[in-house]
Write a structure and sequence with these properties.
Shape: elongated
Largest sheet: none
Radius of gyration: 45 Å
Distance between the termini: 122 Å
Helix content: over 70%
Number of helices: 5
Structural class: mainly alpha
Strand content: under 5%
Length: 227
């Protein structure tokens, strides 16, 4: 009994692992239908075939797991090791996970298709209504244009308000600087000799300006003369 159980177990496990790998590959293909940006209104032949193949693989794996369970139950305690128990548990857990994944992907594809069909129906109804009511379509267009113009005016008003606020701040700053200047001039008038000193400094600056201007004019004339 031990001899017949061993090869049967190994062969069934090998088949189960191969079917698990095929299921993973098909899931990779099937998941693309759920994430497609433009899902067709009806399932394509590829989608239907992929879903059918996954279901067939799951059914085969469920049968193989039942056979593994039968062999393990019928085997003697010496041949029924903890490793076989763990392998069987792993295969059963993987099968349940893949069955849940298929159910989830089916629901996701159905929801995406229903949403796309609903959106297409709404667009078709709107187009049909506008075609049969051209005046309404023109009114909708004018309302859209009015909304865009109102948004543009809102942006312009916001920019103008900011400009007015900046200009007001500049006016406040100019007034503050004028007050400071008046205070300095007033304070300078109270100190003896300050006005005369400020006048001499201003006269010296003007004299230096005249000298510098004359020198620049002389240099320009000499430059023009030697050209």
């Amino acid at each position: 009994m031990s001899t017949s159980t061993g090869p049967g177990w190994a062969q069934l496990r090998q088949q189960t692992r191969a079917l698990e790998a095929q299921t993973d590959t098909l899931f990779h293909t099937y998941s693309r239908f759920a994430s497609a940006p433009n899902i067709p209104p009806k399932p394509t032949e590829e989608e239907t075939n992929t879903e059918s193949q996954i279901q067939v693989l799951l059914d085969k794996r469920e049968f193989l797991i039942e056979e593994l369970t039968r062999l393990l139950t019928a085997s003697s305690p010496l041949t029924s090791s903890a490793l076989k128990q763990n392998n069987l548990t792993l295969h059963r857990s993987t099968l349940h996970e893949h069955q849940s994944t298929l159910t989830r992907l089916r629901a996701s594809i159905a929801e995406s298709r229903q949403r796309a069909n609903l959106l297409s129906t709404v667009r078709s109804d709107i187009s049909s209504y506008r075609s049969s009511n051209p005046g309404t379509a023109e009114a909708d267009y004018m309302l859209d244009e009015r909304s865009r113009i109102d948004r543009s005016h809102g942006v312009a008003d916001s920019v103008l308000n900011q400009a007015y606020a900046v200009n007001e701040q500049f006016g406040v700053q100019r007034e503050m600087l004028g007050n400071v200047q008046r205070r300095i001039v007033g304070a300078a008038g109270k100190v003896p000799g300050i006005n005369g000193l400020i006048g001499r400094i201003g006269a010296k600056k003007r004299r230096d300006g005249f000298v510098l201007g004359g020198f620049v004019a002389f240099c320009m004339l000499m430059f023009l003369y030697f050209m």
